[in-house]
């Protein structure tokens, strides 16, 4: 009956045009649905990856060959300019040995030794051996960190707090307001009792 209605209501050309429009609308709807689903799945995968990183209550190590500007800024004694100098050097020469870090302008032996425990060792075997021994003796830092106002680079000076956890602290602060007590840090993804106790004496509100 529907076909009879179309046949007597529309001409043959109008019927073809109507079918074409229906096909285009259906196709567009399907593409939009699948596109939205793919985007949602990608967002879920990214969220899961971040949660996996934050769920591990252990010290993060940086690889000079791929570290970002923000990650490098979390190294002791490395500000934004020095971090950019490292990236500029990497773009021009490429790091094949951790010791090359001392070739970057402004990074001497003293700064190098402070940074080494935070880095993944590669290249010279003697550097790798030294790094392996020093991983468990991370240089002591005595600065007091206000977790309600500290920026990312200052939060990164805390033991076992890398860029991802520092950003998680800042995000928690934005969503829930300032921390009321130090133990509230345990509510932040990736910060467990061990990390909290290692930093308790250096934290203020």
Alpha plus pi helix count:
9
Shape: flat
How much beta, percentage-wise? under 5%
Strand order in space, largest sheet: 1-2
Low-pLDDT segments, ≥5 res: 125-139
How far apart the termini lie comes to: 76 Å
Q: What radius of gyration results from the CA coordinates?
A: 27 Å
The number of distinct β-strands equals: 2
Q: What is the ordering of alpha helices and beta strands?
A: HHHHHHEHHHE
Helix content: 40-55%
The average pLDDT score comes to 75
The main pleated sheet reads as:
2 strands, parallel
What structural class should be given to the helix and strand makeup?
Answer: mainly alpha
In short:
The longest helix has 44 residues, at 12-55.
Layout of strands and helices, then pairs:
Layout: H1 2-9, H2 12-55, H3 69-72, H4 80-93, H5 109-115, H6 125-134, E1 145-146, H7 152-155, H8 163-176, H9 193-199, E2 203-204
Parallel strand pairs: 1-2
Keywords:
mainly alpha, single chain, 205 residues, two-stranded parallel sheet, flat, 2% strand, 2 strands, 9 helices
Give a written overview of the molecule.
- Strands 1-2 form a two-stranded parallel ribbon.
- The N and C termini lie far apart (76 Å).
- The relative contact order is 0.10.
- The longest helix is centred in the first third of the chain and has 44 residues, at 12-55.
- It is 55% helix and 2% strand.
- By secondary structure, it is mostly helical.
- It contains nine helices and two strands; from the N terminus they run H-H-H-H-H-H-E-H-H-H-E.
- Mean pLDDT is 75; it is low at 125-139.
């Amino acid at each position: 009956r529907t076909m009879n209605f179309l046949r007597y209501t529309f001409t043959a050309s109008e019927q073809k045009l109507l079918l074409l429009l229906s096909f285009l609308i259906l196709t567009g709807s399907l593409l939009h649905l699948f596109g939205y689903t793919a985007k949602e799945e990608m967002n879920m995968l990214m969220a899961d990856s971040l949660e996996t990183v934050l769920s591990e209550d252990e010290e993060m190590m940086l690889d000079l060959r791929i570290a970002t500007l923000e990650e490098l800024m979390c190294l002791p004694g490395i500000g934004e300019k020095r971090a950019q100098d490292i990236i500029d050097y990497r773009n021009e020469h490429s790091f094949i040995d951790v010791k090359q870090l001392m070739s970057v302008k402004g990074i001497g032996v003293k700064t190098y030794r402070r940074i080494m425990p935070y880095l993944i060792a590669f290249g010279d075997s003697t550097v790798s051996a030294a790094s392996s021994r020093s991983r468990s003796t991370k240089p002591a830092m005595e600065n007091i960190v206000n977790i309600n106002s500290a920026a990312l680079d200052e939060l990164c000076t805390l033991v076992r707090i890398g860029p991802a956890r520092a950003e998680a602290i800042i995000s928690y602060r934005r969503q829930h307001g300032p921390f009321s007590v130090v133990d509230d840090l345990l509510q932040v993804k990736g910060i467990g009792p061990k990390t909290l106790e290692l930093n308790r004496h250096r934290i203020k509100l």
